[in-house]
Amino acid sequence: MARFLVISYVTVLLVVTIYGQHSDSSYSIHGDTTSNISDIESRQSGPDLEFRYHDHDEMTRYLRSVSASYPALTALYSIGKSVEGRDLWVMVVSASPYEHMIGKPDVKYVANIHGNEAVGRELLLHLIQYLVTSYETDSYIKWLLDNTRIHLMPSMNPDGFAISKEGQCNTIHGRHNARRYDLNRNFPDFFKANSKQPQPETEAVKEWISKIQFVLSGSLHGGALVASYPFDNTPSARICRSSVSCSVFQSYAHSPSISPDDDVFRHLSLVYSNNHAKMSRGVSCKSNTPSFKNGITNGAAWYPLTGGMQDYNYLWHGCMEITLEISCCKYPPAHELPKYWMDNKQSLIKYLAETHRGAHGFVMDENGNPVERASVKVKGRDVTYHTTKYGEFWRILLPGTYRLDVSAEGYLPQEVEFIVIDSHPTLLNVTLHSAKRIDTGPYYRPVVSRPPPAPAPGFLTSISNSFQNIFSNFFG
Ligand SMILES: [Zn+2]
Predict the structure, then answer these.
(1) Contacts of 242 (CB under 8 A, 6+ apart)
(2) Would you tell me which of 67, 257, 447, 451 could form a disulfide with 234, CB atoms 3.0–4.6 Å apart?
(3) Domain 42-356: CATH class, spelled out
(4) Which N-terminal residues, if any, form the signal peptide (predicted)?
């Protein structure tokens, strides 16, 4: 029988070691771990950050300098190295930079995955600067950092950036990594096998997001002005060459590829677009490029691609990521950077705060012990999320009434009805009872465990079936 649980939002403040939920971490933290927030005032003179492009060494110096000046708000770590040996830096900005706070979400931005799309790289440096200098004076930023761990990766492709040229708006020089791979085509793909050789930058990111349960993410790009949301790929993904039938497929391929969380992804994209100075106007960058209604688009409706990062985040790890195209010119002159910062500042902050929307909570056994890797699925949304080592889960949802299916191997499955309201997240605690003491009855369904990286097979089945129906209706 379904249980109706609506519990007021009570934060659980248990502090564990950084990445503690994933046992030992290979990431080493740079900085002073002993300071607390009261130390900030005595270190007011943090590093300056000019509006200009910073090469890898300059960026590294800046990040180290911030972590030294704001040790109670920041932690700097590298998730690995690029092909040419440059660190893939991540700066955590949070009131708890070194430690995951149980019950509070981790979120991220990744920029410069295409090395010549340089604006996002600088904007993330300015976002770091803004967050650390506003904590004491801006109550909203204080609330955000007190309740969220924000991980910022200014460059996922430092090698590509190193050969890119300021002022080049539309070339692809510097887009790829040092081995000429497009990193945003280098992830495992749900809809089509991706035969591209995995690159060190991609492997590092895959390991990173498998170690930390990120709830929300943005990938910053350039060359357009739009917030693009999953899916990027479609079940009909194929390369069009010259045949007549191919052109039919091509037009079909530009149809939206709708995810089970389409309403949420649209909302998240609109939050970015509507808080941006001009994105929501949907004006095209050039006369021969598309315009986007309200400044948002489904990824595949714009153009389908295989091996993208946002579909991977969502389907493999339950992290809702969208792609943010924030500049018509990929690498504009540095004197334009203040304008880009002002255009995006509000968006960058408000978007991350959306992680505090929907439902979150804990799955525990009858003794109050957390159940790790329990499957958490909202009815009608055929994507499975999993609990962390501490039994935590997060599900960003719009206001409404939902039912949650929770199951784990060795436990009786549980169905819970809950509501989501606009003003604050719903805390939802679920207790699973051991299946061992009960004879197999009509309500017991054994749970089949699946290997961690694969998304739920039910999703594949439903998508494939629906598209097979479309195909047979269209061509049959
Ligand atoms: Zn790009």
Answers:
(1) none
(2) 257
(3) alpha beta
(4) 1-20
The DSSP code for 197 is P
Q: Name 42's Cβ contacts closer than 8 Å, sequence gap at least 6.
A: none
- Tell me if the domain spanning 359-475 has CATH number 2.60.40.1120: yes
Q: How far apart are the first and last CA of the chain?
A: 43
Question: Which pair of structure tokens corresponds to residue 244?
Answer: 């007549």
Mean pLDDT to the nearest integer, 63-70: 97
H/E element, 78:
strand 74-81
Distance between Cα 240 and ligand 1 center (Å)? 21
Catalytic residue among 117, 325, 354, 392: 325
- Of the candidates 107, 84, 87, the one whose C-alpha atom is nearest the C-alpha of residue 28 is 87
How many angstroms does the Cα of residue 155 sit away from the middle of ligand 1?
Answer: 12
pTM given for the model = 0.84
Q: What is the mean pLDDT of residues 362-369?
A: 97
Residue 415, beta-bridge partner list: 405
Q: What pLDDT, on a 0 to 100 scale, did the predictor assign at position 27?
A: 77
115 CA to centre of ligand 1 in angstroms: 8
User: Using one digit for the tens of pLDDT, what is the confidence trace for 283-330?
Assistant: 899 888 889 999 999 999 999 999 999 999 999 999 999 999 999 999
Which whole number is the average pLDDT over 182-203?
A: 97
CA of 222 to the centre of ligand 1 (A): 6
Between the CA of 459 and the centroid of ligand 1 the distance, in Å, is 28
Domain ranges for the chain? 42-356, 359-475
Asked if pLDDT for residue 55 goes beyond 60, the answer is yes
- Would you call 117 a catalytic residue per the annotation? no
Written as six digits, the tokens of 268 are 């998240």
